[in-house]
């Protein structure tokens, strides 16, 4: 068993090395990577703030709270004409302030006079409920808790900015965060009037071969031989 574990680790290390080589970065050939949003010059300063969240939204006896980082841009907000709010849900990574002044959502934000927010996901960036990532602490890292974080944040901002019941919240997200956006709209239709889910894997499943195909495609950008080598190695492990 220890030998099998060692071989598995070696395979995963080799895959990691291939994906972090000079030829491939985050699954894209260097020079062909998806660029960050272009940052426009903003007339107002993008603000960084922190929202107090409960650690466990499903246990009333748990009174532990923590600080969740968010960004806000009020440059386009026109509350006299309509109350439109755009919320970017950050996924499994640090929230990027560049989204506050760049990206495809800026044009409709200007058009509809939207207030812009970006909310960092719990346990990522600086939004950590704990100082360590022990197994005991990581049980609070879940999409269910993240959805409750976002719904609580929306209610909090409605009060903070004195928004009326007619305020229209539109949430945005890509990949995992795209799933959160769609689920939020489904679970809280009274809070969220629309969701833009880009490439969101909405239907959770234990056997998810489509994801492995994405990994294989990324490896193939480095080397088709690498894909076949990894496939052969895992077949040998399964037949051990």
Automatic annotation (TrEMBL):
Pfam families named among the record's database cross-references: Peptidase_S28
Keywords for this protein: Glycoprotein, Hydrolase, Protease, Signal
UniProt entry tagged with the keyword Iron-sulfur: no
InterPro entries from the UniProt entry: AB_hydrolase_fold, Peptidase_S28
Annotated signal peptide: 1-18
GO molecular function terms attached to this record: dipeptidyl-peptidase activity; serine-type exopeptidase activity
Coiled coil: none
UniProt xrefs under SUPFAM superfamilies: alpha/beta-Hydrolases
Biological process annotations from GO: proteolysis
Keyword Nucleotide-binding recorded: no
Family according to the record: Belongs to the peptidase S28 family.
Protein name: Putative serine protease F56F10.1
Species of the source: Anoplophora glabripennis (Asian longhorn beetle)
Species lineage: Eukaryota, Metazoa, Ecdysozoa, Arthropoda, Hexapoda
């Amino acid at each position: 068993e220890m030998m099998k574990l060692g071989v598995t680790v070696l395979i995963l290390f080799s895959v990691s090395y291939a994906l972090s080589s000079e030829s491939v970065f985050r699954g894209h050939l260097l020079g062909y990577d998806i660029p960050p949003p272009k940052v426009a010059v903003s007339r107002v300063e993008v603000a960084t703030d922190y929202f107090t969240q409960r650690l466990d939204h499903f246990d009333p006896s748990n009174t532990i709270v923590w600080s969740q980082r968010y960004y806000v841009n009020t440059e386009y907000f026109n509350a006299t004409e309509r109350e439109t709010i755009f919320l970017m849900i950050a996924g499994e990574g640090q929230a990027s302030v560049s989204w506050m002044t760049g990206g495809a959502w800026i044009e409709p934000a200007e058009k509809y006079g939207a207030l812009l927010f970006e909310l960092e996901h719990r346990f990522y960036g600086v939004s950590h409920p704990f100082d360590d990532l022990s197994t005991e602490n990581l049980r609070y890292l879940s999409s269910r808790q993240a959805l409750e974080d976002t719904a609580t944040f929306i209610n909090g901002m409605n009060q903070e900015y004195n928004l009326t019941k007619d305020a229209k919240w539109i949430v945005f997200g890509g990949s995992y965060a795209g799933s959160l956006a769609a689920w939020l709209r489904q679970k809280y239709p009274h809070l969220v009037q629309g969701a833009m889910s880009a490439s969101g894997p909405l239907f959770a499943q234990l056997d998810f071969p489509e994801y492995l195909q994405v990994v294989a495609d990324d490896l193939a950008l480095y080397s088709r031989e690498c894909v076949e080598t990894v496939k052969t190695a895992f077949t040998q492990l399964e037949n051990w």
